[in-house]
Design a protein that fits this description.
single chain; 603 residues; alpha+beta
Length: 603
Amino acid sequence: MKHWNFYTAKEIKPQGWLLRQLRIQAEGLSGNLDKVWPDVRDSAWLGGDREGWERVPYWLDGFIPLAYLLEDPDMIARVRRYMDAILSFQKEDGWICPCSEEERATYDTWAIQLISKVLVVYYECSGDERIPDVLHQVLKNYYDLLVSGNIKLFDWGKFRWFEGLIAIRFLYERTKEEWLLDLAKLLKEQGADYTQFTDLWIRPLNRWRFDTHIVNLAMMLKAEAVYQNLFGGEYTDYAESLRTHLDQYNGTPVGLFTGDECLSGLSPIQGTELCAVVEQMYSYELLYAATGDAKWAERLEVLAFNALPATISDDMWTHQYVQLSNQIACEKFPGKSLFRTNGPDAHLFGLEPNYGCCTANFNQGWPKFALSTFLWKDNVIESAIPVPAVLTLPGKRISLETNYPFENKLTYTLESDTDFLFQVRIPSFAKSLAVNGHPQEATFLEFAVKAGKAQTIEITFDTEPFLSDRPHDLKSVKCGSLVFSLPISFETRMMEYETNGVPRKFPYCDYELLPTSPWNYGYLPAELVVERRMVDNIPFSGKNPPVVIHTKGQKINWGLADGYENVCAKIPEARTPISEEVEITLYPYGCSKLRMTELPLLK
């Protein structure tokens, strides 16, 4: 299976709205977490007394590429400070995690798999020549300890074993040492086999389990692809059958699976954890690179343009632990939590609502997405995700100017000292495709680029809005990769306080969002009219969305979930109109912090 290769942050640079989005992230919580959050600032990874397991590696996994994509000297210096500290604590036998030798047997080695992946990210961004040797020591020590039986996979390490294959492949391509393949086989042998758990995904339970944990499942989708990339052999696309099964019983309109925190069924008032959003994006990035199958790139777009921005505040200082398709308020439940295994504050926007893993892990979403814009294989360069970026290589430069997905025009400028083939992936939903004004019909466009001849390629296409079927005889509105929702106006209640020595203070305090506009509507069988506007300095702005859809609706007696004042019922209590017909304006899901996404179509 011939896979596509990723470029590095030295070669790809964001521009346009994508650059603005990354700068917002750098100016928000991602770029300041090491200054304000004790679990990163005072972590045991640096010799401190706070968490010494997944949180610093999680944060670095996104902060490192963010720093190098933006070429920010201060952020790069902070990356080096953390990496120097982590490397300085490595033991002589190669062990790198912050625990004593006596604690190793009970230390969940998910952290080894994660820090190994971070070391690869850091090397690809920085070129630090220490890293291959450090990683060799880490993985050889891991192998020796597993072979000897001194440690074994359990809990998170067992259910995320395939994450270790990313670093193994990186090192094997450089050394060809057979013990690395043996380590990969050992991880697979001791790791969880998700094919044994599929019956558990059909009926949600109010019970916490590793085998229905939504983040584990989002990661798991790439398991066959990363294993086959290492060993070769026939790829069966088992990820597709697993994804289809998850979607059938737990799907959402934006390509996620419900999981608050474990699989939660098809209800639009059950949530999805933010860690699962970015991990599912990463799985799709690797699946597309491994297979070249366009469905994974298209699904990646849907997650990135909808689920990711929807669950993070416009200034990226706060986030939710879980997002809901139909979310009419974000207010802490005064009694029993609505969620199956999450607490009553999991849907608030804050520093670490419910649990802090997402605080550290959401940082990888946009930077790794930016690194997926251009891919290469042999003498072919592909524009895989058509968002604004520049690829600069020795003797080559490719620039893409676009406001996609808010507009459907792509302008490429190509310059090269040598001949090469340039390929553009065209979304399956594109209508009236044209290249430099000439109609085309293709899902992939290929251009022969000649040395010394600058070339401009302008690609245009249309996207048509439509009603998509959802469970419970509800509908969602889609147009291209964007999902649309009925936005709900809200007032914000800011909460500053301190818990366990961790302050929440502006701008990283907690916020409740309380509705101030009606939400109990159904769609009428009317035209869906797209209005494209200017892209704001905040690309997914809740105040100035770059594109909206106008249609017709009427109020209905929707009702509230039993026992809750600010949660809509799972399905409407009645579908009989109780108001006059009105025009309603739909916002992109990613621009709507409070929203109704799954609505009935009134007859």
